[in-house]
Design goal:
The protein has about 800 residues and is of the alpha+beta class. It contains 22 helices and 33 strands.
Length: about 800
């Protein structure tokens, strides 16, 4: 029997599942009087179990719609399309208003045997089929099509799709049907949407085929519809999984990796809102310890993403910390180490939601109806927890979705752990490197110095760039910039060794070219001593390499002597604003061994700006080193501002975004010691020169207002001049320099270096340098072009500049 559902079909069911109200339309449909069903369980009226989706919606207290098989009073099975709407009674209990707005089909006596089998096949085909005439008006539809459309065949006959359902996407279907009727060609179309009266979105695959007579004329068309919702969901799940494999972990940054996880899950349609909470120790790169059982766990909201702008569902801002109290669902999920699926009716989830008024409010406001919690675990270590939530997607998470969430999170966890390990090593390397670099520029009369150091950005380890400012004897200063091959802790450690070696060699006062030669020997020995075992069996020798620039500036003569080993030349800016590169022989990189280094010398005007840098400053993917050097020179040409402001201007001009390699920039503006602060005398090679030297030194100290230092200085001058006359040779020169300290220098024509020795009781000599060492703060010697210079420094009397 086939009939219509009366207009007034309505049933009210209480919270216990008993019928409270039975309408006249329900009586006409099922044959039961009100007295027969009121107070009885509504399940007595079911001829078959409720569909799974309907049961889930009922359990979650959500509005539902679907086909339900009911039992007629005479025993027949009646299929009705019903809608269930949740209500609340006066006591706050849940009621259900169940209405029937779709056609019902009652299985009555068998159809006449004369009904053609072909018609039976079409009528009972388990896929929706409809036939339309030449004007795209419905001629016939099988039972499955009427169920999908929510209307009887009689209601739809003679109408176009646009007239049957004047809403998208049926207007598009109507257009496509007319195209088939016009062209006579079969058309395949895929779409997504809700069937009339449905809550869940479906995926449909439609075949629209022309119906032709024997002459080939199009007489009408047929439409066959396949519900491919499950296949579509499966494809979406595979697409999300594939996207997770390709997008998550593109960098070695913990925060960015967490953001990629959230973006993949939301953009792929898997979840409507995703949060990633990481243990605080993980966010800083530390190894997380075992989860405590009896204390709350603090996590940091590292990433979150929503289909709604601004993540209005969030109760914790990105970057903020929150706590998982003892006994709560998130902490139990972390401890269990397994993903779990929850709905608002679950007691555990209800308790977690109720523990925060803000959380309870957002769940109610956004109607969050399905939640998956998945721990981030990698290599046996728990890193954090991911929340997947749905509120705009009507379909709740399924068991298949739970497996997909676990797979996504498992892949992401490895990337997060890799980023954590990288962060730890990067932090260690950065701390090591910064501990080996100068903390602040020294105050020197020879130069004013400012510098900037920028570590490499994401995707690259800390490199081995270094710089140094080394005070030398005679008020001179050494400026050093270097770059070790490679990245990471090993490069930073090698950098520290080379920097220490440069300082040691500078203390010996070696010329720049000879210093680089000694440093090259050291790098060769390091490479030989470490061998491939320290760097990996497949690593070639020569990997412990470096570049270096070593420059010495003398504020008395205003001469700068420099040598470079495979390093970019320094840039010079004259007081007039002219910018050029210092012409220096290139020299091989350190570590090749056996190749010579050459030094260049240049007279500088007072106020000249020297710019020393590593190649990370002038190389970038968007330009080569020549263009980078040109940009550097243009930025240096603007001499406005202090040295620090110039450093910042250069860095703004050159690198774009985070640098791919470490950057060092050191600026030094030269000064000159005027004649009033330097005094020198040529001494004859005779014993009387000692007394003369003492007298001239005393007079000069008096002129400088340093009479307090006269006694110690005369003793130092006496001993140094005596040694020069006795063990050295002509020419002998005495020089006094008033700088941050009082410097006494005696030069002679011998290259033999002096050394302290212990004089015995009855020895007549051997105590001169010992006396100098006692009177001076520091002393030493350096080689010159004509011999050597012995120098001694004394602190200026208190309060004297």
């Amino acid at each position: 029997m086939e009939g219509r559902v009366p207009e007034g079909l309505a049933v009210v069911v209480d919270a216990g599942g008993a019928v409270m109200v039975w309408s006249d339309g329900a009586r006409l449909l099922l044959g039961f009087d009100s007295a027969d069903v009121v107070g009885r369980p509504v399940t007595d009226l079911l001829a078959a179990g409720l569909p799974e989706s309907t049961r889930r919606h009922v359990a979650d207290g959500l509005r539902w719609a679907g086909e339900v098989a009911l039992r007629h009073r005479d025993g027949d099975r009646v299929v009705v399309r019903l809608q269930g709407t949740p209500l609340v009674d006066a006591d706050g209990g849940r009621l259900w208003l169940v209405t029937g707005t779709a056609p019902a089909y009652r299985a009555g006596p068998a159809e006449p045997a004369t009904l053609p089998l072909w018609d039976l096949a079409l009528a009972q085909l388990p896929v929706p089929v409809a036939v339309y005439d030449r004007d795209a008006r419905l001629v016939a539809a099988n039972e499955t099509m009427t169920e999908v459309m929510g209307r009887t065949e009689e209601e739809m006959k003679g109408l176009t799709l646009r007239e049957i359902e004047p809403n998208p996407p049926f207007d598009e279907y109507d257009r496509l049907q007319r195209q088939v009727l016009r062209t006579g060609e079969t058309l395949f179309h895929e779409s997504h949407g809700k069937a009339p009266g449905e809550i869940r979105r479906h995926a449909w695959s439609m075949f629209m085929s022309p119906l032709k007579d024997k002459t080939g004329a199009v007489r009408g068309m047929s439409a066959t519809v396949f519900d491919t919702t499950e296949q579509s969901w499966a494809r979406r799940r595979l697409a999300v999984l594939n996207e997770a494999g390709t997008r998550i972990g593109s960098t070695l940054d913990i925060t960015r990796t967490a953001e990629e996880l959230a973006e993949v899950a939301v953009a792929g349609g898997f979840a409507d809102f995703v949060t990633v909470d990481l243990l605080e120790s993980v966010t800083v790169g530390d190894e997380p310890g075992p989860l405590p059982r009896d204390t709350p766990v603090t996590v940091r909201r590292t990433a979150q993403r929503s289909v709604l702008r601004g993540c209005p569902e969030s109760v914790v801002a990105s970057g903020d910390t929150t706590r998982y109290p003892v006994g709560t669902l998130p902490l139990r999920t972390l401890a269990a180490g397994r993903a779990s699926l929850h709905r608002p009716g679950d007691p555990e989830l209800r308790g977690w939601v109720a523990s925060s008024s803000a959380r309870a409010e957002t769940v109610a406001r956004h109607m969050i109806h399905s939640v998956v919690l998945a721990p981030l675990r990698a290599r046996g270590v728990t890193l954090g927890l991911v929340h997947f939530l749905r509120h705009r997607t009507a379909e709740p998470f399924s068991e298949d979705d739970l497996l997909l969430a676990e797979e996504i999170v498992t892949r992401a966890a490895v990337s997060v752990d890799n980023a954590r390990r990288f962060t730890r090593e990067r932090r260690t390397a950065l701390a090591l490197q910064r501990s080996l670099l100068p903390r602040r520029p020294p105050r020197l009369a020879a130069v004013d110095v400012a510098y900037r150091y920028l570590p490499a950005g994401y995707g690259a380890d800390i490199g081995g760039d270094w710089f140094d400012v080394i005070p030398l004897s005679g008020a001179r200063v050494a400026l050093v910039v270097g770059d070790v091959v490679g990245h990471g802790v090993h490069a930073s450690a090698t950098m520290g060794r080379l920097r220490t070696a440069v300082r040691t060699l500078a203390d010996v006062d070696l010329p720049p070219d000879e210093l680089l030669t000694r440093l090259d020997d050291l790098v060769v020995r390091l490479d030989r001593d470490e061998g491939p075992g320290a760097r990996g069996a497949d690593t070639q020798s020569g990997q412990v390499g470096a570049t270096c620039l070593y420059a010495v500036y003398d504020p008395v003569s205003r001469r700068c002597t420099a040598a470079r080993a495979g390093h970019p030349p320094p840039a010079l800016v004259t007081p007039g604003g002219a910018v050029r590169l210092m012409d220096l022989p290139a020299g091989p990189p350190l570590g090749l061994g056996g190749l010579p280094f050459e030094a260049g010398e240049l007279q500088l005007e007072e106020g000249t700006l020297l710019a020393l840098y590593t190649d990370g400053l002038v190389t970038a993917p968007e330009h080569d080193i020549e263009n980078g050097v040109g940009l550097l020179c243009r930025a240096l040409g603007d001499r406005a501002g202090t040295l620090d402001e110039t450093c910042d201007r250069v860095l703004r001009t050159l690198p774009a975004g985070r640098p791919a390699d470490d950057i060092v920039l050191m600026l030094a503006r030269t000064s000159a010691l005027d004649a009033g602060r330097v005094r020198s005398w040529q001494l004859p090679p005779e014993p009387s020169a000692v007394a003369r030297a003492r007298r001239m030194a005393g007079q000069q100290l008096a002129a400088w207002g340093l009479s307090e230092a006269e006694f110690a200085t005369e003793l130092i001058v006496s001993e140094l001049v005596t040694n020069a006359l006795r063990y050295g040779g002509a020419p002998v020169e005495l020089r006094l320099i008033r700088d941050a300290s009082l410097i006494c220098e005696v030069s002679d024509g011998s290259s033999t270096a002096p050394h302290l020795r212990r004089a015995r009781v009855f020895d007549e000599g051997g105590r001169g340098l010992m006396l100098v060492a006692q009177l001076a703060e520091r002393w030493g010697s350096r080689q010159t072009a004509t011999g050597k210079t012995i120098w001694a420094e004394q602190a200026l009397p208190s309060g004297r500049p």
